Amino acid sequence: MPAQIRNLDWLRSLKLEGHPDFGARLHEALTDIKNGLGTLEQQGNFNLQGTPAAPPAPDALKVVPHPQGVQYSITHNANFYKGATYRIDATAGNVTHTYDVGASRNGILPVGNLKADYQVRTTYPNGVSSPAVRHPKTVIGGGGSTALLPSQGAGTTRAGQPPGFGGPYRGSTPPVRGQG
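The structure assignment produced for this chain is given below.
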């Protein structure tokens, strides 16, 4: 939501002796600031009115055993802004550890042979998390294949797309932003 400047139209009508266009110029300057703040808000994943809303939840989480622990693959086909990051929760014996895996939707968690349940959430910096998406089964790490799961991309790229090809948001038009 763009910044609101109160009395902007009234400021445009102000006149000062010797400076008949004072109000118009003040209005122009404040409008430029307002537009700049709107651009900053969109490009930086900010919400000038409060906490940014969470990005859409991921579609699915796949977790498979890997010799070093478990390998994960996050499917996230929704439209979202650049800066979305993922957090994977591993829960074993009523203890949960959270792994911040950044913008990458593929990787290996070095949990050894831990038997755990996994879920993933996504968030923007300084924002709230999306609802969690669970992997449907408990997974025992420390075994399995070293073969990599298919790439799901990183940042705003799509599955199998090389890094650096994603724009400021994923989709043809920016997703609607709201307050969280």
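Interim note for the steering committee: The domain at 60-140 is CATH 2.60.40.10 (Immunoglobulin-like). The longest helix spans residues 22-43.
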